């Protein structure tokens, strides 16, 4: 989360998450924990995983109590074993208890995504193909989820609709079947007049080889091969190479861990996987208070 835009985004997300969790106050902690009590806690991985979200967790504790001290013990994107200590945090006991659930929720969600991304990336080795995410993210959490994808070693597709042109089946459905070439050609021309090719890429989705041939002649930057079989993709790669043009080819639709290697072998440049973000199980994370007698261990 290095750049200013990302930092603003995740601080706002953290603020909203804390408002949601705390409400008007932590009644249990207020009644059971003395206001002057201090504590130290350790955050622990409950499974083998790729660690992610520690800086977000640190922001949670900072927003609850600016005097809380959060020490990261692992790097973002680092593989860790079950039982590994990820971080330690110290400060007022009340502050640690108030921040606990929100902090470990973020680490769990983001580590789950990073772990999933690493599994997909490892599965396609040694093929020279990029695994990328999609916009199938939880509303309001896209910046964090795409950050976790990068931490896991995969790449990001566009984050918002203003980043690139991506013509999909529903865009083409507006044109009659016989006019699609003209529709695309006209739109391409308008885009290229308004934007520099370096700053605005054009991608078009196709579902069969006939449409692929038609789109290839229009010279987009990327052609998305949607729900096509590996055999069809190999033919598309050959057609692209024979044409002497080099639009990137992206594979999308129905990609799973069981078939991604076969798709990677087909020769395309990019494989987009919605499962990197839309259905990932959170990693098992816990936070345990260290007894006063054990703080020096």
Description:
Helix 4 crosses helix 5. The chain has ten helices and twelve strands. The longest helix has 31 residues, at 93-123. The chain has a six-stranded parallel β-sheet with strand order 6-11-10-9-8-7. Strands 3-5-1-12 form a four-stranded antiparallel β-sheet, with helices on one face. A two-stranded antiparallel sheet has the order 2-4. The chain has two domains: 4-121 and 281-294, Alpha-Beta Complex (Aldehyde Oxidoreductase, domain 3), CATH 3.90.1170; 155-272, Alpha-Beta Barrel (TIM Barrel). The radius of gyration is 24 Å and the shape is elongated. Strand 10, helix 10 (260-265) and strand 11 form a beta-alpha-beta unit. By secondary structure, it is an alpha/beta fold.
Structural key phrases:
TIM Barrel, alpha/beta, 6-stranded parallel beta sheet, 4-stranded antiparallel beta sheet, 297 residues, 18% strand, 2 domains, Aldehyde Oxidoreductase, domain 3
Poorly predicted runs of 5 or more residues:
none
Oligomer: single chain
Name the beta content range. 15-25%
Distance between the terminal alpha carbons, to the nearest Å? Answer: 32 Å
Count of alpha/pi helices: 10
- Record field, number of beta strands: 12
Give the overall silhouette. elongated
